[in-house]
């Protein structure tokens, strides 16, 4: 929202209002046609600044007798979208990992970002928000709660409502640790792992 102080209108001349010039990324040239013209008001809402940029404004009062001097130049900076973080995972930068206990997701800090949203899914699609507005670059994940959530990504954002692109998608699968069973035989003990059982075999 752009606003300014009222200008004098000597003699109450008709046709009083304000002309607005906008430049991006430098100050505008008032020899060019104005960006907008308004009546006897002191505010202007520029709906055409949806894109990030460095916007500069100059305002002049006018009436049917002519145009007054330029105002000072007002500057508004709309920040761009933060870069996406890099999701590092609990163990390494590998994009496919297995975990057997509570674990911590970690990611790189994004300059200008203040918060991070973490998303999870059983498959690499249809993600839902796992935890939002995380103020750190890591998040502890409870193994039992996360069981069956195998894919993760992170989005950074700032206080201005600008959200980054998604981080890389990390396959980090919480799985039950493979049970162990033991064969005992004369002269040694052999240990094996197999899914689905915990039998112990004893031999004399």
Q: How would you characterize this protein structure?
A:
This protein is an all-beta fold. Strands 2, 3, 5, 6 and 7 form a five-stranded antiparallel β-sheet that branches. The protein starts with a strand and ends with a strand. It is built from one helix and 17 strands. 2% of the residues lie in helices and 41% in strands. The protein folds into two domains: 2-78, Immunoglobulins (Immunoglobulin-like, Sandwich); 96-174, Immunoglobulins (Immunoglobulin-like, Sandwich), CATH 2.60.40. Mean pLDDT is 81; it is low at 192-204. A hairpin with a 2-residue loop joins β5 (53-63) and β6.
Short description:
The chain has 204 residues and is mainly β. Helices cover 2% and strands 41% of the residues. The strands form five sheets. Strands 2, 3, 5, 6 and 7 form a five-stranded antiparallel sheet that branches.
